[in-house]
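Field: COMPLEX_INPUT
Field: COMPONENT_COUNT = two
Field: RESIDUE_TOTAL = 536
Field: MODE = joint
Values follow.
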Amino acid sequence: MPIDTVLEDRRVLDLRYRMPISQIIKFFEGLEEGKVRGTRCKECGRKYFPPQTECPTCMTKNTEWFDFEGDASLETFTTVEVVPTSFVNEGSYVVAIGLLKEGVRILSWLNTQDRSTIKIGMKMKLKAVKREEGYYSYEFFSI
Amino acid sequence: MKSNDEKVAIVGIGHSKFGKRLDVSINELGWEAIKPALQDAGVTQKDVDFYSVGNFGYWSEEILPAVTIGEYAGLSCGSLKTEAACASGSASLKIAVDSILSGNSKIAIAMGIEKMYNSPNGTIIELIGRAGNYFWEFENFGMTFPGYYALYATKYLDAYHSREEDLCEAAVKAHHYGSLNPYAQFQKETSVEECMKSKYVSRPLKLMDSSPITDGAAAVVLARGDVAKKLSDTPVFVEAQGYASGTAYMGRRDDYTGLEASRRAAEAAYRKAGLDGASNNFDIFEVHDCFTIAEVMAYEDLGLVKKGEGIQLLREHQTYRDGKYPANLDGGLKSKGHPIGATGISQAVEITKQLRGEAEKGRQADIRKGRGLQHNVGGTGHYAYVTVYSRGD
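Field: COMPLEX_OUTPUT
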């Protein structure tokens, strides 16, 4: 039998990261309470999403958490048809960038009854959601 | 005016065949680029003071490719691996150029390499997708690289009343020149119809809007200007490099019709080279067309045309060889292939060939001004490198 010209690796690595969230634990607590949160620097007023608890401009930890009301307009979107291996059970999904009323943009999934009706500029609502796997996330919903 | 010992020039080039290269290991593939580069420069390994290897990695088994490749290639001087995602090659060039400009080297090699097919396609799609912003964009939302550029494409097509067919024009051009490039992964023409029929990977981008998964390597031998003049009759000077970093999180980008980091990198490159912009100063352009929309945005971010007019350049064939701004006459990332870490050096090799007048039949630009411009983006606009090359005559 001829020897294969490619050697299949016999060493398998299960890559699973441990990601520290102690500084932004309020974000995850917020999701469980149905809120999506960002942070704001109390000195310069800059809002942060992804949230961070230090403002690099003011060099201070003088930041506070605020809840998004959820009102957003659609900036751009795509339907991901070829999905990564770890998302194969999801089918295709719509990813959107929404501009929140608070002036912050967020990237997330967009849920809608009819994908053909998605239009740039349309109104959406950002909500905390509990995924089927039991963990919390946040997603846009068409109105 | 800089003296020769304050300049750096490319004096040797090497380029592997791009494609699915399961016939070679990463070290063998690296040698396929280093060997011709050394021979072209007329130097040996002992003449080399430093080398850098642009590489993203993760999908291939060697974690320290700079050293495994160096070991195979007989290089034992100082080295490192550079990572700037798809601009890792330009980062490699930067470090090697800097080693000469700082006085630490007279001769250096900048190479780039990627061995993507050592992993299955699904793993590759996953790894590139993770390279946007893992925590906030991948973990919950499964972003992919076509997904990111599709966000730009959706916005661009809407903002400038363009069609998917217009984007396909970039693929048609890429494949035309790829068909003339013996190193290209795809050496066959395509059509707008064929492109439109290909399946969606992330709407509105289709398979034929996308650069492929590629194995490949490229290398350049660099020398201090005075050394370069002795080594080569046709040195190509690295006149200036501009660079900038954008944000990882997409929500923090300024708009979705161009890459802000590209614009800043281009402005810096023109300023350092003492040029008034892109439109009147270059014979040849290499732009980062990882997707068709990326090529259109590159035209605009480099300042060849105003925002929204990039599509018009494609429609009018102004970036073909005989147009106003010949771009990617090697087939670009789309048709030549896009081995992530090798792409930036492959672009440098191509510009050197063009400025020397050595490009293959049917794809040699008319060289009058003696200058070429390279645009290399890493990530979705995370990193941007713009490099000005000149024959110096």
